[in-house]
Amino acid sequence: MADTFRSQLRQSARSGLIAGVITLSVSAIGMVSLFAERELVGGVVTMGQVLIYAPTALLVSLAVRKMERNALRVLLAGLVAGAVSAIPLIVLIAFESLVDLRQFMPNISPELVEILDFGLGPVVGSLALLGVMGLAGIAAGAFHILPDHIERPILQGLLWTLVIGLFSEILSSRLRDFFGVGFTRLIFTGKALRPALALVLFLLIIGAGLFLPTRRDRVRQYFSALPARQQTRLRLGAGGLGLLFLVILPMLLGSYLSEVANNVGIFVLMGLGLNIVVGFAGLLDLGYVAFFAIGAYSMAVLTSESPLGVGQLTFWEAIPLCILIAASAGIVLGIPVLRMRGDYLAIVTLGFGEIIRILALSDMLKPFIGGAQGVLKIPKPPFTGFSLVRPEQFYYVILGGCLLAAFVSWRLSRSRLGRQWMALREDEDVAEAMGIRLVTTKLLAFAFGAAFSGLGGALFASKLTSIFPHSFKLEISINVLSLIIIGGMGSLPGVVIGALILVGMPELLREFAEYRLLMYGALLVVMMLAKPEGFWPSAVLRRELHIDEKPVAVEEAPALEAGD
Q1: Cα 561–chain centre separation
Q2: What's residue 554's pLDDT?
Q3: How far out from the chain centre does Cα 154 lie?
Q4: What is the pLDDT of residue 563?
Q5: If you ran DSSP here, which 8-state letter would residue 244 be given?
């Protein structure tokens, strides 16, 4: 037992050392000193402090979760990990006091050292940092001792309070438009939450976390006891309320946030399409941006008022043709790769995407699609005599496309074809032995996926009113694949969650300039460590990744087991 505990202490110390190196890295590149000026809770918590202590808290929490809930041992492990995490920073403070490190690393400034040593000098400040980091490790370990029903609400309260403080500038702007400056100043001070309100918010979230689970269980029991017809009515009513919220959302968001929502919606469309190809059918497609480009150029050529426009069609007349052209391209891609699997399929589709991008740049097609100069003067969608110019107006076009794509995806997932795709994903040979026609099934997956991507490209072209080849790089395919992995493979709600995180969050973090993508990447790493199955996984993926845990309930059975 003693050997086991010593092993756990060594593991905790390694976790603390990793946390210290992470904190040292973000300090050395200037993030801590820059974000120390950005307050989350006025006069109490800054983003710089979060960057210093969050790695220690997170890695200590992950380390002690592997231990038994022995209070003394968990707290001791947390203390060791926290103290060890301070060592790299203490070394930095010591070196900076002896050598001018700014000639080598310009971001290691006196301001940074003052933040790390609390302005107490190298010796006293290092001891203070050691003690504070040790207390942070103890606090992170103490959460493991708490019962789950208490630990979770406290963590949710901390997280939501910090998130609201992080996005306080956007929230205060919207509240100012609705309720005036006086009301906003009661909640925010500058770009931060007021301490009293932050405390109230923290306590309210904890209270909700303690109270709502029991109420939710009672509601579920009451709902399951109702007749099937009443359950259907309640679901329809909830769906209607959700749809009503989506309809009034632009009025709440304003122009800038509506534009962000439009970008998220376009990626939701592409994610729903790639989710059919990768999530349902298991066909790894890295050239998915090609269909996005085909849809965009089809809309541009068919509707443009420039000399490159050939059809002079309206948006509503061109949109079905764009979807049909993209679906046809999906079939054309699918024919040569019918016998390919895994990495080989990924490489071929990657090549297809690059071929489309290079063709769009080429002089050969320049007379038709403009080459590097792109296609200009693409009109906005007309509606009852006027064009949908503002982001709040164009939002409804994208919302309609997303709802249509989500409905089609949902119906496909529960159809015979959807079950064939899922069988194909699990094992092609077994699926073929069971009588599934692989050629037809694969081609339909590519066609439906390409159709949704083409719809997204057509909306993208109309939204921007001009398109250029550099808008269709490989990064688009990687981002769309990432969002369905982050949200949860094969999960329709997961696509929406993934798009919000992958597309919406970087837009909302623009105030952090060049560091926003680094912060975003760190958040993704943390998320993949905490929830490798995604934020909203399908029942099949959840069962596969948690097969050693409690069994999946009957009501969580996947669509594969549902009737037509």
Answers
A1: 29
A2: 39
A3: 23
A4: 37
A5: H
Distance CA 114, CA 97 (A): 11
pTM above 0.90, yes or no: no
pLDDT (0 to 100) of residue 544: 64
Q: What residues have CB less than 8 Å from 234, skipping those under 6 apart?
A: 223, 226
Compute the distance between CA of residue 145 and CA of residue 376 in angstroms, rounded to an integer.
62
The rounded distance, in Å, linking the Cα atoms of 279 and 290 is 19
Return the CA Rg of the chain: 27
Residue 151 and residue 163: Cα distance in Å, rounded? 18
Give the separation between CA 164 and CA 393, rounded to whole angstroms.
27
Provide mean pLDDT across the span 361-369. Answer: 89
The string of pLDDT tens digits covering residues 416-471 is 998 999 888 888 888 888 888 888 999 999 999 999 999 999 999 999 999 999 88
Fold of 255-537: ABC transporter involved in vitamin B12 uptake, BtuC (1.10.3470)
Distances (CA, A) of 13 to 8, 18, 59, 60, 338: 9, 9, 10, 9, 51
Condensed to tens digits (0 to 9), the pLDDT of residues 384-400 reads: 777 788 999 999 999 99
Residue 408, token pair as written in the block: 């089609």
